[in-house]
Amino acid sequence: MRLSVLDQSVARAGRPHDESIRHTVALAQACEALGYQRFWLSEHHALPTLVGTAPEVLMAAIAARTSRIRIGSAGVMLPHYSPFKVAEQFRVLDALAPGRIDLGVGRAPGSDQRTARLLNPDLGAAANFPQQVLELKAWVNGEDLPPGHPGQGVRALPMAATAPQLWMLGSSGYGAQLAGHYGLPYAFAHFITDGEGCKSALDLYRATFRPGVLERPTTAVCLSALAAETEEQAWHLFRSRERARIDRRSGKFGPLLPPAEAARPYDPGEQAELALLRERAIVGSARQVRDKLLARAAQYEVDELVIVTWAWDPAAQRRSYELLAGAFELA
């Protein structure tokens, strides 16, 4: 079982945003030492809960401070940008960390529509996503675009012996089918849907896969997990995330609260959602979380899990990854 990490640079109440960014870099260094396969970074804009807005910049900082772990975006929201410019950025990253760069792309805005318009006034760009992926694939891998294409004969530099690994990210069947069509590796965002649609998307990906960038299907599932020394301590730490999830239901976004301050009265609808959230949550001691993760891996027939861990205390977040690395004997 390969384990990897996705960090979103979560905003924490009472702590400055820049601290979250620096902690992400330090966490990547720690995860490399612990034996994790890859370290991915998300892209969100103008969202008070998440301050990781520029994964490509963070990737450069992490590349300079690590030597083995793969580093990637999870992902670049491609409709915001020019595929050519993204290819250039990631080819530079690959020059800094040869053979260690993952370029995960997604179609979702990663923000509200107003912010999306500020990033790219053409909100219809998402309709061109399949073409954007095709262009990005060509430029990243040094392939030629077909005759008549405006970019035919243009190269994304620097060229090198290695190239970024393109991944398709998604939380529905759309991205799964596109990944299968282009022969790309596919990662499902289980932590966004709480598992809804995960198995059907993976099945669709495998059913539609045809050799392209890869010769055979490659899958990963990104899911939320939190481990602590004891089950009781883990559920206490989980209060921060459950408050954020319940608040999000009513459109309230803010920094992650300390667990001791996270409790508030919940209405009947919120209580029902909270019960379902706790039922699905992968929370507990290291052994309990390991067993739940292995069960998910068997359920979805994947050989790599990407772990997302939210905790108000950065030390608690790091300890969770340490405990899981020990439970899976990564080092």
TrEMBL record:
Gene Ontology MF annotations:
oxidoreductase activity, acting on paired donors, with incorporation or reduction of molecular oxygen
GO cellular component terms, semicolon-separated: cytosol
Entry keyword set: Oxidoreductase
Q: Does the keyword Oxidoreductase apply?
A: yes
Q: Which CDD domains match?
A: Flavin_utilizing_monoxygenases
InterPro entries (alphabetical): Bact_Lucif_Oxidored, CmoO-like, Luciferase-like_dom, Luciferase-like_sf
Q: Gene3D superfamilies under this entry?
A: Luciferase-like domain
Residues in coiled coil: none
Residue ranges occupied by any Luciferase-like domain in the UniProt entry: 1-297
Q: What Pfam families does the entry give?
A: Bac_luciferase
Q: Would you identify the family this protein belongs to, as annotated?
A: To bacterial alkanal monooxygenase alpha and beta chains.
Listed name of the protein: Luciferase-like monooxygenase
Q: Which organism is it from?
A: Ramlibacter pinisoli
